Amino acid sequence: MAAPAKKAFPLRLDPALFAALERAAASDLRSVNGEVEFLLREALARRGIKVAASEPARRGRPPKEIDDGS
Question: Where do the domains of the chain lie?
Fold first, then answer.
């Protein structure tokens, strides 16, 4: 099963800000996109805005379908 769909949108950033995001993401072992999501969730939490928890992505192989012989 595929990961839950995410909303995609264009985002224009100052090159210096993007470079800082790249450094922060690398130090946290995240992608730049993951770092932006993390920072946005952190900022919203500090403002008291609750974000519903997303269903975690499923990892590994899908379960085998059992053939019951019907």
Answer: 15-46
